[in-house]
Amino acid sequence: xxxxxxxxxxxxxxxAERARTDDPLVLLxxxxxxxxxxxxxxxxxxxxxxxxxxxAGLSWTVIGDQLGVSKQAARQRFSPRLEVSGxxxxxxxxxxxxxxxxxxxxxxxxxxxxxxxxxxHLLLGLLHVGxxxxxxxxxxxxxxxxxxxxxxxxxxxxxGPRVIGDxxxxxxxxxxxxxxxxxxxxxxxxxxxxxVLALDPGSSARRILDDLGVDPARVKAELNDLIPPxxxxxxxxxxxxxxxxxxxxxxxxxxxDPQRPVVNxxxxxxxxxxxxxxxxxxAAADEETNHAGxxxxxxxx
Length: 301
Hints:
This protein is an all-alpha fold. It has 14 helices and two strands; from the N terminus they run αααααααααααααββα.
C-alpha cells in the first residue's frame, strides 16, 4: 500500500539521520534498533486493545479467533497477572509467596471459565493454601460449595453469555496489599486478602460467602488475632503530639466554629460540613456502582 511505502521511506530517512554515516554496518545496526522500537510499539498497541476487549467482557475464544490464534495462545500471550501496582496513598506491601500461589490458582480458575478474573475466583484461590484456607475450612467453606454457589448465583440468563467475573480481582489484591502495609506488615498474606473480600459488601466473593451463611463478623473475629492493629505510640509521645480536641470540636476537621454544630458519638464528634462531605462521597460511590452495573448490562444480548 502507498501509506506503508511512505512509512518505510520515513523510517529509512530516520535511520540515515540517526546513523550519520554511510557505513553499511552502522546503518544496518541502526535499522535493527529502529525495527525493534517499532515492534515494541506495535505490541503495546495490540496489548492495549486486547485489554480493552477483555474489559468489555469478550472471551479469549473470541479474541483468539480475531487474532487468528487459539484461545490458549491468546490467553498465554496477553493474560495479565493479578498483581497490580498501588497508588501514592499507601505503598502496597509485596505479596507473600503463599498469596502469589493463591493468585495463580485464582487466575487459572478464571481461565478455565474463559472469564475476566473476579473476586469469586480469588475466593477459590484462597482455599488453596495459607492462613485464609484454614479460616475458610473452619467456617465450612469448600471449593465444591463455592463453585456450586457461583454456578447458581452468577449464572447468566437463558441464552446470555457465560459467567463473567466481577472484574474487581486486581483492585481487591491492591486493597489487600495496602491494608497489609497500613497494619505495619512487610508482606501481604492470604489473611489480608480474605479480610478485604469478606468486608466488601458489593463483591461477588462476599455475595457467595453470604449465600453460604458465613457471617463477615465471624471472618473478622477469626482474623483479628492474625492481623494485629498498629501499636499505639508511647504515652509520652502522645502527650507531645497535638492537644486533645475540645468537646465542641469536630474529630475530623478540628473545627471549633460555634456556627457549625457537631453531632456527638461514642468518643467522636462530627460537624455539619463533614457530614455533608461524607454524604457526597457515599452518593458518588453509589453512582459509580450503578454506572458499572449499567455497563455490565450492555454486555447482555
